[in-house]
Amino acid sequence: QLVESGGGLVQPGGSLRLSCAASGFAFSSYDMHWYRQVPGKEREWVASVTAVGRSTNYADSVKGRFTISRDNGKNTVSLQMNNLKREDTAVYYCNATWWDGSILYNYWGQGTQVTVSS
């Protein structure tokens, strides 16, 4: 199970920190991702952090403004969002994936709304 929190209303240029609490699976073995979705559009990948090595990757649209991190001791993944823009408004989803060589295990949270508006 994945449960996101931390969404809300913020002015352009502001910051928010999203958190995702994981339970019921071996969190430290899973790559973790954040996606976002605007009504009427496809879900968009935002950022990832790997299970091994904890390397990170970001969509070009958020690079330099967002930071993904994980705490395997607390089974959480976070997304620090700075210098927010109106176009960052979306529902943000936490996603966990693990490929065991034959099966892709894939879990999603319920999403948290982020609204950037003055």
Please characterize this protein's 3D structure.
It is a single chain. With 118 residues, this protein is mostly beta strands. It has no helices and eleven strands. It has strands at 2-5, 8-10, 16-22, 31-37, 44-49, 56-58, 66-71, 76-81, 90-99, 104-108, 112-116. β4 (31-37) and β5 (44-49) form a beta hairpin. It is globular and about 45 Å long.
List the helices and strands and how they pair.
Blueprint: E1 2-5, E2 8-10, E3 16-22, E4 31-37, E5 44-49, E6 56-58, E7 66-71, E8 76-81, E9 90-99, E10 104-108, E11 112-116
Parallel strand pairs: 2-11
Antiparallel strand pairs: 1-3, 3-8, 4-5, 4-9, 5-6, 7-8, 9-10, 9-11
**Sheet of most strands:** 7 strands, mixed
Structural class: mainly beta
Q: Tell me the Rg in angstroms.
A: 14 Å
Principal-axis shape: globular
Annotation, overall tally of beta strands: 11
Distance between the termini: 34 Å
Name the average pLDDT.
96
Order of secondary-structure elements: EEEEEEEEEEE
With helices defined by DSSP (H or I, 4 residues minimum), what is the helix count?
A: 0
Proportion of helical residues: under 10%
Low-confidence stretches: none
Strand content: over 45%
Key phrases:
single chain, 118 residues, mainly beta, 4-stranded antiparallel sheet, 11 strands
Describe the structure concisely for a colleague:
The chain is an all-beta fold and about 120 residues long.
